[in-house]
Structure formats: structure tokens, C-alpha cells
Amino acid sequence: MRIDHTHRKWFIGSMAGLAVASALYIPYSVQSPQGPRGGSALGLAYGSAGFAFMLFAGLLGLRKKFPVWRVGRAQNWMRGHLWLGLVSFPIILLHGGFHFGGLLTRVLMWLFIFVFASGLLGTALQHFMPRLQTAQLPLETIYEQIDRVRGQLAEEAQKLVEEACAALEGEVSRASERQRATAAAAGANWDVTVAAGLDADEQASSELRRFLSAEVQPYLARTGPRGTRMGDAALSEAMFRQLRVLFPPNLHSCIDDLENISEEKRQLDNQNRLHKILHGWLLVHIPLSYALLILGAWHAVAAVRF
Amino acid sequence: MLRRTRTTKKLARRIDLQYFSRPHPFRRWRFWLSVVVPVLALGWLLIQRAHGGQKIYSSGRLSRSHAVFTQQCGLCHVTRAGVFFKEVRDQACLTCHDGPVHHSSQTFSPSCWSCHLEHKGVQRLFATSDASCTQCHSHLRTRDGQPHGARSIDGFDRGHPEFSPLGKGKIDPGQIKLNHYLHLQPDLIGPANQGVQMTCEDCHRAAGDTRDWPYGTLSPRASVEQASMRLPGLGAYMAPIQFAKHCAACHTLQFDRRFGNEQVPHDQPNVIHTFLARRFAEYVAAHPAAVHEVEPRNRQLPERDRIPRVAHDRAEWVQFRVEDAEWVLWAKTCKQCHALNFATGALPEVAKSNITPRWLLHAEFDHHAHRMMSCAACHARTPESHDTADILLPGIAVCQQCHQEEGSSQEVAEGRCFECHKYHDWSRAKRTNGRFSIPELRGTAQLILPQGQPPISH
């Protein structure tokens, strides 16, 4: 979610709340004989407010699970998650008087630090990266379908090469409609001379197949660019440029298509990488948030008891 | 020429419309981590609970003195029967400690834990915050409505008054005529007419110092015993000045030329009178001819209008000699240091020395802790003092050069209230009787309270 003018109310409200909490903390810390403590009246108030904010932030997951619930727009929940989650951390610091306390509270604070830091990172990523993706990935697809699309690209490349090679080797039955039209336009007799009309070159055919199996298919079969020459955009471009020099002009359209498929695959890899960056922090943020809420609730009960 | 085209229709055909119903590895990871991590956290709590460890609930490490009880929270956190919450009550503290009241006229008694903060790490519990004291002393009120000290103190350098002995018009009540300036001059005539340069520690040493006294006659061992009997806290305060320890070697008490260097006892006049009568009687018994000897004029007493007297018998001779010796003592030897009152009878009355053993009665001071400093660093006026009435106690400004409220965190000496003042009046302390066994204290056994304490259960 982008941080834009629609966040203004949340920003002002949360910052005002934090300012009030901080202003109250100064006389409280100076005047209380035992210093700021989580167990004092104001300390408990800070703790309750902080935990309530954390709880609200945690409920975002539930809200997303049930999108039809009439409990406010998901965007508002997201804004609340962002700003109340942001404020909850300093509020909890005020609650503990900037001390981490004993074993349970220390664990809680470190969990909170990781949750808070990952949340901040996620917020920054969600703010900046969608634009980057739009600019860098014109061929973007649904993330979960990348593997499926990659398979389709491999099939498409295979089909393209098969069709081109069939024409080169005189296999008219496997030649495409377009190739047949080209042959007819050249004055060739049907079924016999179509291959000759296409300047059949068996050597070019085998070279194209070899290129497909050695370079294109391994690249399309892999999830990432690692270990393949075509993964490198500059190297890939150089290879295709060389192919155009080596192969007859009537194969150039096939080569162009293969290059286009490679480029699409490259973008899918890039999308995969960016998606992991954009959403990977959630693997830390969400599990630790749940652990934080459970331990926080336990701490609240234990602290009130003792 | 590129033949591939990307129409929306073509792109839509690529997508499996049921893709969302099959979990993607990323979602699977997120789900399982969201299950496993909280379960691990919960498991950790349950394991801690199963092992009986309450330590994880501790809000911080215990102080040095209580660290040994870390596993036994119930020693301090007690519950009333049937109540879920566990409070820290003064009664739990008073099980092991007595906490005498601060002042009989105080209007408010804070609970133990509000001043002696626990769970703040390895620290000394007596190191209370200034706020513990200033919550009353910043606007002091008493039951009788008349505070005896300053009404508004916010800290050592914020409203703390000058030390009371240094108040305006106050003088040293001591009656021994001592001139510090004179005693610190070079080439004083010391024992055996040797020139000496006295220093402060020739007379002023902390109680418990076993070194020989250069100008005394008392053995060091005896002086230690005397000092430790008088003052607690060896090393903290200077031992009281005593004639035998500090003065006797120079200020000798000879009384008559016939007895050489023999001296009268440093005691009350009647004791001295008895001593003189006995010693002259013994002398004349041993030297009968002395009765008829004409006594030469005593040039030590030029102011005395003295007609040579001839005794008719031994008793009269003893009387004359005692009178002469006493005149030397009262008019010169004793008078040099003591104030004598002749109005009360035949023998003078010696004013009590009234040396102040401790100036700051409401504060603690430790000379030993300041041993790295020269005496004059604090008692700067002493070398120039000519009068006994001068109070040579350093003022609060001297202390404030090093002691400030911020303490060691700001590279200064501790300046919080507890450094000098004690809250509890330990003279009223009562003995407490321990009731716990070692396993109970260490947390390896259940706490069992003796019968007769129904309100509290652990």
C-alpha cells in the first residue's frame, strides 16, 4: 500500500496520540520515586494501549480472511494496521520505561523489534516497489502462475522451432500455413517443391534445433536465470544477433520469436525475484506477530498477577 | 519480424482459473511458519511452567542481596487466600528485615518496595532514588506542623541547606584551648626538647588505626580498644582526642623539682590533690631534714606574691609544698589547655572538654573513603585557625565539588540522598527471627508458613 494523502488522518491521529503519551511520560518519569515502571498506573495504561494497538494490527489477517464481513473497508484496516502498529512500538517502550526487563519481557521486546523492523521494511517496499514492477515488468503475470506460464513458453518455443525446421527440411505437412503461402508465392509446386521454394537448408535446421535444446529449453525449464547464458540479457541479445547473421533471413522471424520468449522468461524471473523481496518479509513479520501476541497476552496476565 | 502477439484473450488463456484454490509454496511457507512459530513460543512457556520456573515472569534481575532467592518468587509475592493476584506487601519484607520508622512525626510512610526497588538488576537496594526522599522533603510537613529541618529540599545541589554546625553564629563548644595554627608551625619543641613538625594525623586518625602515636604514651592496642568501644564503623570517623594518646609526650605534668620528671595524673583536681599530698608525705618521711630547708623562690610563678614560709612540722611542710605544686598546676600547666573555675571551692573545677566527636549527626561520613585526599583539601581553614571556637568542618560547597546527583554516570561522585543519609532509625531496630529453611529459600521446596498467619498464603 502506498503512503499517500489518504493516510493523513491516520498519520495525524497516531502522531497526536504518541505526542500526548510522550508528554505524559516526562513528568511521570521525573516525579515517580521508583522511576517509570510497567506496573504503575500510567505504565499499565501504556501497556494496555500498546497491546490493544498490536491486537488491532494483528486482526488485519482475520479481516483479510473474511473479506465479506461488514467491518469497514480493508484499506482502512490496512491504514490502521500501519499507523497503530507504528505507534504501538514507542508506546510499549514507554510502558517498560525503556527497559527490556526480565526473560519473558526481553523475549517479547526482541520479538517486537523484529516485527516492527520487518513491518517498516515491508511498508517501504510496498510503497516503492509496485512502481518499479510496473516499469520493469510489462509482461508481468500472476505470481502463482509463473511456473505454468514458463511451461507454456517452453512449449511455444518448441512449437516455433519445429514448424520452422519442418519447412526447412521439406516436410510440407508440418509447414505452417504461412510457409506454404510463401512457397506458393515463389512458384513452387505443391507438396513437392515447397521445401526448395523455402531455400531448404538442413544444416540450418539442425543448428536451430541444437540451439533450442542447448540454450533455450534449459533456460525456460529453470525457475531462475542462474547457470544459463540466456539469463544474462546482454549475452542473450548477442547470441540472437549472431543467429541472425548465421541463419537465412526466412528464419529470422522464428529467431525474433525465440528472443521474445526469452525476454518474457527473463521478466518472469525478475518478477519472481521482486515478488520474493516484496513479500518475503511477511515470512518473518506474520509468524513473529502471532508469537508476539500470544506471549504478550501471557505477559499481561502474569504481570498483573505478580 | 515478430510473429508472437500478446492479446488479452491469449494471456487470459494462459491462466489456470483455479490457481488460487491450490496453495503456492510461498503461501504454504507463510501458513506453516505462522503455525509453528507461535506454537514454539507457547511450548516454551509451557515447558518453563512445567519445570516450575517462575523466573521468566521476573521483570528484571534481582538485587545482589536477593539474587539467591530468584527461584522463590513466593517469598515476596504473596497472595491473600482465594485471590488470584500476588502482591508485594511490607509484611513479606518484615519477615526477614526490620524497617524502623524514619521519624515519629512523619505524616506518610512509604511502602518498602516503593523505595527499595527490586528487579532493577544487580544493584544495592539501599541506593534509593532521590525522589523517594523528596516526595516528602521537597515540601516537608510533619504531624506537629513544625518541620525541624529545611522545608524544601529537592536534591543535594537543589535546596539542600548548609550543614547545621556551620550555621550563622555557631561556634565549636569545645573547652580545650587548642590553636591549630600554632601546632602546625615548624620547629615546635617536642618530646625530649627535640624540634618537631606536626601533621594532622599526629593527632587525628580514624578509629582502628594501630600505628604508634608520636606524641602519646598509650599503647596502640589500648587505643584501638578504646576507640572501637566508643564508635561503630572503624575507619569512618576520627578517633576522639585523648590526652594520653595525643598530648602527653609534649605537654608534661611535672609538679616539683624534688620528683624529677614524675607527673601528676591527668585527672580531676581532687585526685591530683590527693596524689600530691601522698607523694610529699612520702618524701618528707624519707627526708626529715627537708622540713627545715628554706624553699627557694619559684621563678615559674612571678606573679605570685610569695613570702618564703618555714614549716614547723612535717604536716605543715606537706601542706606548703602541695599548695606550691597546685599553684604551678592551676596557674600554668593545667590552665594552658583547660578552663578552670576557682569560684566553687578550694580546688578549681575543670570545665568539661566537650570535644564534639561527630559533627553531622543526621548524616554519615566516611573518612576512610576519602583517604586519597589531603586533610587540607577539605579542612582548608584548619592551618590558619587560632581559636578553639572555630568550626573547621568543611561546608557543603566543598562536598559538591565532587558529589553531584548525577553520580558516576556523569563522572562525578555519588550525590544522591542515600550516600549520606539513612531513612530508617536503626536505633529502634527490632530483632527478626528467621523462619525459612535453605530449600525453601532456594526454591527447591514448597514454602510453608507457620500457623497463625491465615491472611497470607504463598
Instruction: Spell out the helices and strands of chain A N to C.
Output: HHHHHHHHHHH
Whole-number tally of structural domains of chain A: 2
Largest sheet of chain A: none
Count of separate DSSP helical elements of chain A:
11
Instruction: Give the strand tally of chain B.
Output: 9
Please state roughly what percent of the residues of chain A sit in beta strands, choosing from under 5%, 5-15%, 15-25%, 25-35%, 35-45% or over 45%: under 5%
Oligomer: heterodimer
Query: Based on helices, strands and strand pairing, what is the structural class of chain A?
Result: mainly alpha
Distance between the termini of chain B: 88 Å
Poorly predicted segments of chain A: none
What does this structure look like?
The complex is a heterodimer of chains A (306) and B (458). Chain A has helices spanning 8-31, 41-65, 74-95, 103-136, 146-168, 177-185, 194-197, 202-221, 233-246, 252-280, 282-305. The radius of gyration of chain A is 31 Å and the shape is elongated. The longest helix of chain A is centred in the middle third of the chain and has 34 residues, at 103-136. Chain A has 2 domains: 5-138 and 281-305, no CATH class; 143-278, no CATH class. With 306 residues, chain A is mostly helical. By secondary structure, chain B is mainly alpha-helical. Among the domains of chain B are: 60-128 and 423-458, no CATH class; 257-335, no CATH class. Helices cover 27% and strands 4% of the residues of chain B. Chain B has 13 helices and 9 strands. Chain B has a 3-stranded antiparallel beta sheet. Chain B has a two-stranded antiparallel ribbon with strand order 3-4. In chain B, a hairpin with a 5-residue loop joins strand 3 and strand 4. Residues 227-231 and 451-458 of chain B have low confidence and may be disordered.
